[in-house]
Structure formats: structure tokens, C-alpha cells
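Hi R.,

Quick one: here's the General stress protein 17M-like domain-containing protein sequence you asked about.
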Amino acid sequence: MTSPMGFRASATVPNLPTPPTGFVVARYPTYAQAQNAVEHLVRNDFSIQDVTIVGSDLQMVERVTGRLTAKKLAAAGAASGAWMGLFVGLLMSFFAPVQSSLLILILAAIAIGAIFGAVMGWLGFSLAKGRRDFTSASQVVARLYDVLCQPRTAEQARDLLAKMELGRRG
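And here's the predicted structure, written out as C-alpha cells:
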């Protein structure tokens, strides 16, 4: 099993989803702060395999990134269609009897693909008019992030994180 960064996961990580165990040693409003706390533990030679970051009070956030227009969708469809046309044109060029017309064949396939893609993009927008006229990006975020630690090392983790907080304030 690998982590999101591609490293081999520890043998202690369960293969099936299980609830996290341990004591809450710190609570942070952002993932970056929780990650910074874990990095502090790593820098202090803490037994890091005992640590888990748990996000709670999950919510789905959808950020609007732009407005959809018929012109934008037709242009995107034309670009996609042109690529498909290039692919079809190259395939057809393998079976063309005359070598001198290869460029014309490929360019014609690109043009036909672009026109077809533009029409399909415009048509798709026209048929869905008013239902969703914007683009967006969605992600799941947590309101709070708890740093959990196994009971055998929880007190040591709390002490290290308390020293980190004192170092910031002092």
C-alpha cells in the first residue's frame, strides 16, 4: 500500500477503513497547522507512527471558477474535435493511396473534427441552458483537525506541542 505521495505505507496502517484510535493531543482550525504540528514531532524524533490527523465536521465546498457561455463551450468543443480529427486523419493517412494528398487529408480531418466539436459544444450548452451556467471546483474540507496519538506516547506528544506553542508566543 502506498501513501498519496507514493511512499510505502507503514505495516501498521490497516488495509480496511477503521476509525482512528488514540487521544487528542492537539486541535487546529486548519490542516496546515495540524501538519506543521506533526512535522514538529518528526523533527524532535517522536515515534511518528503513533500519530494520526483526523478532520472532523466535514463539509463539501464548491468554489465557482467561471461562467459558461456558448462561445466558450463551442471553442472547447472545437479544440477537442480538432484533436480527434488529427487522430482520425493520421489513421486514415496509413491507408491513403496517394502520398501527396496526406497533408490535405489530415488538415481536412482536423477541420471537420473542429467543426463537429464546436457544434456539439454549442448544442450541449443550448440544451442545458439555465441549469448550470458556471464552472466550479469541489472539495471536502473539515472545520477542525485533531492530532491523535496512541496512549503510550500521548503525554510526550502534548509536551512537545506545548513547547512548540510556547516558542511561538515567547
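The longest strand covers residues 51-67.

Cheers,
M.
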